[in-house]
């Protein structure tokens, strides 16, 4: 009976994909895919676009970033091992993109995990691609509810290993939109449970769990970055991927 | 400092692999791999061996199960879609293997997710392979603490999709052994958090989350199977995989 009721209620489906290595298990071509890379790619993307960047072009290698930056005469950014990558000009911190600097500019950004996942979703003909982070949580949720399409919350993870912060963000979205979707997906139930445990203080939660990425960024002295990236709606705009660019909508 | 302390404390590592599709991310050859398939393969294996089965031979297809059963003149068992598979004699329920039936016998068992994962661990030259379920939780934990080797808690999942019950079991193990291991692994932190949320009543937790496998087995009328498989230490023996067979130790 329950199964029948589920299929008849006409709600779209929502799945959480906790690692890019699992994306092939989901029906990407019939879904809006939310690319999640909380520390720090999709948070920095939200911040830069919120502060007026014209567009952001995500690329997956430093070499391509340098090449495209030269061709287009635009800003290049990206880090490897916590340092600005050789040949690029800016890093991955949201604090590097205040309004007075980024407004009206195009940014070519190289990130490893998030960009790889975005290109995978593109190759699988996703119905739509948006980026999500705590920085633009409400905009993401409002859009997903309005669209009434199937959704995949796609975590960028770390070299395919599941991470805490992307899973927490998936849980945050689920906690807000779940009445509007069929969620027959244990990964989503796990993400939501995790979020309820951590939501009262996400930074303290990450710290108490000694999350691997928390640990890594703290070692680089980036506590303020982590705190910023775990703050809800500080750059609350919708970001869509269209024609090879990330744009504010 | 913390990183250095971690590397110097000489504890072995523990990782949780939430899906067979992620196993390649972990150093299998230097680890004891715990194969987890709570609903119901590794629970039924624990029960049958606890009740005196001589050994269990896990195979990954019905055809191989039939063939081996004939050659060895032993019991064959396995289900597909909740029914005893055609050509086999018994199913996947722990209640089918009481002492009076199974004592002294060899069982050839075909399961999809768990057997596939076990063979993957074998192909990657795991240092050791044991099976784990709530039914033999303490035996698993005691063994891991005694061995002082690196550990991978490997969830069988469902066709590579992460599931709630295997993750819960990984969390149960972690909650008991964590002081003895370095756990620099977000999947383990997620599993442990999930377990703390659910541990007071695992059945009610699975029900409240409408876990996909809970839902599936309830539709087959298998509530008692689920309750049994979520009960700690009801068949508390160590099970090792040696020479192609699962044996009680």
What does it look like?
Two copies of one chain form a homodimer. Chain A has helices at 2-8, 41-50, 62-72, 99-102, 113-123, 137-147, 164-177, 186-198, 202-208, 212-219, 223-229; strands at residues 14-17, 31-36, 55-59, 75-80, 83-84, 106-110, 128-132, 150-155, 239-242, 245-248. In chain A, a hairpin with a 2-residue loop joins strand 4 (75-80) and strand 5 (83-84). In chain A, helix 7 crosses helix 8 (186-198). In chain A, the strands form three sheets. The first copy, chain A, has a four-stranded parallel β-sheet with strand order 1-8-2-7, sandwiched between helices. A four-stranded mixed β-sheet of chain A has the order 3-6-4-5, sandwiched between helices. In chain A, 54% of the residues are buried. Helix content of chain A is 41%, strand content 19%. Chain A binds chain B through residues 2-3, 18-19, 21-22, 25, 159-164, 167, 184-187, 189-190, 193-194, 196-197, 209-213, 215, 219, and chain B through 2-3, 18-19, 21-22, 25, 158-164, 167, 184-187, 189-190, 193-194, 196-197, 209-213, 215, 219.
């Amino acid at each position: 009976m329950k199964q029948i009721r589920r299929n008849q209620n006409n709600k779209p489906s929502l799945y959480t994909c906790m690692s890019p290595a699992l994306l092939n298990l989901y029906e990407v071509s019939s879904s809006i895919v939310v690319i999640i890379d909380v520390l720090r790619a999709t948070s920095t993307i939200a911040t830069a676009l919120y502060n007026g960047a014209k567009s952001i072009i995500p690329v997956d290698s430093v070499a391509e970033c340098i090449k495209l930056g030269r061709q287009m005469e635009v800003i290049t950014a990206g880090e490897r091992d916590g340092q600005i990558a050789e040949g690029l000009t800016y890093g991955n911190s949201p604090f590097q993109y205040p309004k007075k600097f980024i407004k009206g500019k195009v940014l070519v950004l190289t990130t490893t995990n998030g960009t790889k996942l975005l290109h995978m979703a593109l190759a699988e003909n996703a119905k739509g691609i948006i980026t999500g982070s705590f920085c633009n949580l409400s905009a993401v949720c409002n859009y997903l509810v309005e669209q009434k399409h199937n959704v995949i919350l796609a975590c960028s993870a770390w070299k395919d290993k599941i991470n805490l912060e992307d899973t927490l963000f998936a849980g945050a979205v689920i906690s807000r939109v779940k009445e509007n979707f069929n969620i027959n997906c244990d990964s989503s139930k796990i993400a939501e449970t995790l979020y309820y445990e951590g939501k009262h203080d996400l930074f303290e939660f990450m710290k108490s769990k000694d999350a691997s990425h928390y640990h890594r960024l703290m070692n680089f002295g980036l506590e303020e970055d982590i705190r910023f990236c775990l703050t809800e709606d500080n750059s609350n705009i919708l970001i869509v991927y269209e024609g090879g660019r990330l744009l504010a909508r």
